[in-house]
Design brief:
- This protein is an alpha/beta fold and 331 residues long.
- The chain has a single domain, classed as TIM Barrel (Alpha-Beta Barrel), CATH 3.20.20.
- It contains 11 helices and 9 strands.
- A 7-stranded parallel beta sheet has the order 1-4-5-6-7-8-9. A two-stranded antiparallel sheet has the order 2-3.
- α5 packs antiparallel against α6, α7 runs parallel beside α8 and α10 crosses α11.
- The radius of gyration is 20 Å and the shape is globular.
- The model has no long low-confidence stretch (mean pLDDT 91).
Amino acid sequence: MSYREDFFRMLEGKTPVSDVPFYMIGAYESEIPNGYVGVMPDISDFGRMMETRKNSWGIEYEEDIYGTGFMPRPGHFILKDVTKWKDIVKAPYRYDYDFKAAAERDLAVQTWDKETQVSNIFGLGGDYFLRLSGFMGFEGAMFAMYDEPDALHELLDYFCDFDCWMTENILNYYDIDVAGFGDDNATEINPFISYDMFKEFLYPRYKRLFKVAKDHGKIISYHNCGRCEDFMDDFVEIGAQVWNCATTMNDLNAFKAKHDNKIILETLPRIYPDDSEEKIRQIVRATIDTYAPGGAFVYIGSVGAMNPEQRERADNIAYDEAIKYGKGFYA
């Protein structure tokens, strides 16, 4: 049974036929083909940020100490007063951009087996909390919610207008299975904002953006790590079918049961680069034993480390164990 077949079985609430599905996002190298294939549009910000440390909105970033992600450049926030956003914030529309030609180029480079693999296009936006925090800092973003809600609603609508335009144009030409969106609005302990603030400011924009993907018939994947389970029922309500980086500080089994095992949890355990080999293998086994029963589970993982050799070592051990321990788990 291929990853693709198991993936679509899980979307129907069924268990995989035999092995625990997994895909590799780290340094692991294997003769086993990756079941998941990610497509990054040429127009996406991620590649630009890798090279320039600045996104198309003008927000400057620094790489985190682990070399696995970006954070807004500390103390360098270009929007001090949300009521002045029209003077500062300029959406990076590119009306002369040839999306059709770009799709032909991108899809010629990144190919996949449509019989066995699942394709996911990411970089479609929806990072409303992170983008706002990038412009204003965390404190500035949260004060804006309390002090200037009308101006903030205008700014978030402006963000969403652009994301819908971008997503519509991309999905018109990229023939893929999954549309990937993401935001990070929680720490490992709690969300950054209250549920009421989430429903007022963020939820309406996520809902509008997801509708674009739904209208194109795409499976919707939503990335949110940290203990964000307070918000995730709402994402299911508006169409999310995959929770990417469903971290284990959330009550994932209760979430699976609540949604009849029809929301695929791409689950990321906590592994540190200097963990012993036995500890890494034990964490992988415990993660599979805890969350794989009943299906709706994909093992993913990449270890953050300042030393690339440490990251590669830990990734190799973790994925080796996931393959071996997951073999025949459902048979």
